[in-house]
Write a structure and sequence with these properties.
The chain has 177 residues and is mainly beta. It has one domain. It is built from two helices and ten strands; from the N terminus they run H-H-E-E-E-E-E-E-E-E-E-E. The strands form two sheets. Strands 1, 2, 5, 6, 9 and 10 form a six-stranded mixed beta sheet that branches. It has a four-stranded antiparallel beta sheet with strand order 4-3-7-8, with no helix packed on it.
C-alpha cells in the first residue's frame, strides 16, 4: 500500500518535472524582430533615433575565378553577400604579399540604437562580437582575416588559408577616414 503511494507520488513528480522542463522563458528581446536596412556607403549620418554600422572585411585566396561568400549577421538576421575577386599582386599586409585573388566587402546598415550581436561567417571561418550602439553615431566593425599557421620557418601566408577572423570595433565611419 505504502509502495503504491510512493510510486504514484514519483510518477506525478516525474510528469511535473517533464512539463516544467518543456516551458522555456523567451526574453522580450528575442521576440522583437531586428529591423536592419542596407544603406549606401556615402549616405548622410543617422538621426538621434537611428545608428549606422559599417562592416568591413576582406580575404585573399590563391588565384581563382570563383566568387566568395560572406554572411553578415546582426542579432540573428543574416545577410548573404557574394563577392567577386580581383587579381592582386601587391599588398601592404605582409601575410597577403604575392599573387592571389582579393575579396573585399564593405556594407553599411542602418538600425535602431541598442545592444547587438554582430557576426561574420564565411567559407573559412566565423567570428562574432556584441556591442552597444547609441543613436546618431556611425560605428565600424572590421573583421580582419587570420591566416594559417607558419610552416617550416616561413611566415604566415594567405596561401595557407584563412583559419578565422579578428573583430575590431571602432567608432566612426572608417571608409571616409
Amino acid at each position: 500500500m505504502k509502495t503504491k503511494r510512493i510510486l504514484k507520488f514519483l510518477g506525478v513528480l516525474a510528469v511535473a518535472v517533464t512539463f516544467t522542463g518543456c516551458y522555456k522563458h523567451v526574453p522580450k528581446e528575442a521576440v522583437a524582430l531586428v529591423e536592419v536596412r542596407d544603406v549606401a556607403l556615402d549616405i548622410a549620418s543617422p538621426s538621434k533615433d537611428e545608428t549606422d554600422l559599417v562592416v568591413i572585411t576582406h580575404v585573399k585566396k590563391r588565384l581563382t575565378e570563383e566568387p566568395y561568400t560572406f554572411n553578415v549577421g546582426i542579432d540573428g538576421k543574416e545577410m548573404k553577400e557574394i563577392v567577386k575577386g580581383v587579381k592582386e599582386t601587391e599588398s601592404n599586409i605582409v601575410e597577403e604579399r604575392g599573387e592571389g585573388t582579393h575579396y573585399a566587402l564593405a556594407k553599411r546598415f542602418r538600425l535602431n540604437p541598442g545592444s547587438y550581436k554582430i557576426s561574420l561567417s564565411s567559407e573559412d571561418g566565423h567570428v562574432s562580437t556584441k556591442r552597444e550602439l547609441t543613436g546618431g553615431h556611425v560605428y565600424t566593425v572590421i573583421f580582419d582575416p587570420v591566416y594559417g599557421p607558419r610552416k617550416f620557418a616561413r611566415p604566415k601566408d594567405f596561401r595557407e588559408g584563412v583559419i578565422g577572423f579578428d573583430a575590431n570595433f571602432e567608432v566612426g565611419n572608417h571608409l571616409k577616414e
